[in-house]
Amino acid sequence: MGYVFINPNSTAAMTDQVLAMARTARPGALFEGWTSTLGPAAIQGPEDGAAA
Predict the structure, then answer these.
(1) pLDDT of residue 48
(2) Which 3 state secondary structure label does DSSP give 7?
(3) What pTM was computed for the model?
(4) Sequence-distant (≥ 6) Cβ neighbours of residue 14 within 8 angstroms
(5) Is 7 within 8 Å of 15 (Cβ atoms)?
(6) Which contiguous run of DSSP H or E holds residue 2?
(7) What mean pLDDT comes out for the span 23-27?
(8) Are 26 and 9 in contact (CB under 8 A)?
(9) For residue 47, what is the DSSP state?
(10) Who contacts 52 (Cβ-Cβ below 8 Å, separation ≥6)?
(11) Average pLDDT rounded to a whole number, residues 22-28
(12) Average pLDDT for residues 6-28, to the nearest whole number?
């Protein structure tokens, strides 16, 4: 089974960390991560969520 993690913020390091944890939790599963190129660096409130 495959999974896609879509990161709405623009921090690629966060995407990488989530993928590393997911791969540890589900060895053998296929994971792919996508990072927004236009969103805020972090989503910390409604304004950031809307911008993402």
Answers:
(1) 87
(2) strand
(3) 0.82
(4) 7, 35, 42
(5) yes
(6) strand 2-7
(7) 97
(8) no
(9) H
(10) 8, 9, 36, 39, 40, 43
(11) 97
(12) 97
Longest CA–CA separation in the chain, Å:
37
Rounded to the nearest integer, the mean pLDDT of the chain is 94
Instruction: Determine the residue type at 3.
Output: Y
Element (H, E) at 18: helix 12-25
Strand pairing report for 2-7 and 30-35: parallel
Q: Is 23 left (phi over 0), alpha (psi -120 to 50) or beta?
A: alpha
Given the structure tokens 């089974």, which residue do they identify?
A: 1
User: One-letter amino acid identity for 51?
Assistant: A
Structure tokens belonging to residue 29:
């599963």
Query: Rounded distance, CA 14 to CA 20, Å?
Result: 10
Write the DSSP assignment of 20-32 as a string of letters: HHHHHHSTT-EEE
